[in-house]
Write the structure tokens for this entry.
Amino acid sequence: MVATPGVQRGLEDVVALESRICFIDGVRGRLIYQGYDIRDLAAQSTFEEVAYLLWYGRLPTAAQLADLKTRFGTLRTLPPPLVERIESMPLESTPMDVLRTSVSALALFEPDETKPGESSIGGAQRLTAALPTILGTFHRRRTGRAPLRARPELSQAAYLLYALLDRDPTELEARAVDVALILHADHELNASTFAARVTASTLSDLYSAVTSAVGTLKGPLHGGANERVMDLLNEIGTPELCETVVKDKLAKHERIMGFGHRVYKVEDPRATILREWSRKVGEAKGNLRYYELLRRVEEVVHREKGLYPNVDLYSGSIYSLLDLPHDLFTPIFAASRVAGWTAHVLEEYQDLRLIRPTAKYVGAVDLTYVPLAERG
Ligand code: SDX
């Protein structure tokens, strides 16, 4: 489509609002949450600390962190009628559809959190705690495993893996997922967060905003890319075929999933960290196949198109090494990003402005109405 003067397609480079939650330096490849560099947070913090940081604007004290962990443990349990609804969903359902439907259904049991504009950090904590349970409930049902137990003693990352794997994760597995959850927790006005803020800007409620966000994240140009990266690796098969398969796709103007970004003009700092975790977990599992293939894909795509990896390139390799099925990769992204979505919704409520851009009308004008009888 030809660019029209004055029209910023995809709102590219449009500054829509002011926010204190997240800063992306696309030129230097830096990502900041409430003032803290993602590299420090990934190296030294936990998802619980980062969620607290996003919601409150400061890192928690030990007592505040302990309280949040206790609340997550308590808030993980779903209303029994909702568990029944999830377990009755068609087993072949897409987990992102189950997630979207269940977040929306959960609102029916939590009327206080669905009053327009009155959602609270409590609602944010509830949703963040509940998403792994929604995913685990459905996944255990479709795989015929034992129902979930609350396990309040587990961290969010360990509980997510317990919920999906029906076993306790190793320390390395839990830490790898904890880092992935930290890295996916927020990313300024990405499409799904923007969808959440648009919903909140009408004074709609937190659950409606997160439902909007889940539906948006499902798209393969956004959160859905991590699942398709693994499809690409399976299609390539061996390192020797990498050059041919990737160049063939580029020649057909196909998008290589996990590469490129609307904001980063250099390597996504999250990809840098996830690449290292893909290697660590691959070494621990004695399987560097994914890591080595991805390094080859990186080399070809950068040489042929000058593109850099984004957050979605290596995350799937880590989840695959943990025996997680591909269709759970984007839901795991959502289980982290719900912290950012809810932080942005609450920020929107604090400085509310209905989000309503305009369109440049390029259709017909002044047409004469022809009565139906005369239209043949
Ligand atoms: C996420 O916004 C966020 O912050 C998102 C996210 C977050 O944390 O929330 O970071 C998460 O969504 C990461 C992105 C995951 N999606 C993918 O990996 C899908 C593959 N990537 C592309 O679809 C693309 O890079 C986008 C959608 C991510 C960004 O696209 P833009 O900014 O709209 O860029 P563009 O489509 O204008 O492309 C510019 C050029 C084009 O070349 P020409 O046609 O002009 O010659 O770069 C090419 C594109 O063809 N290009 C790619 C490519 N990405 C861009 N070519 C091949 N493969 C790619 N992946």
Notes: The chain has a mean pLDDT of 95. The first helix runs from residue 38 to 44.
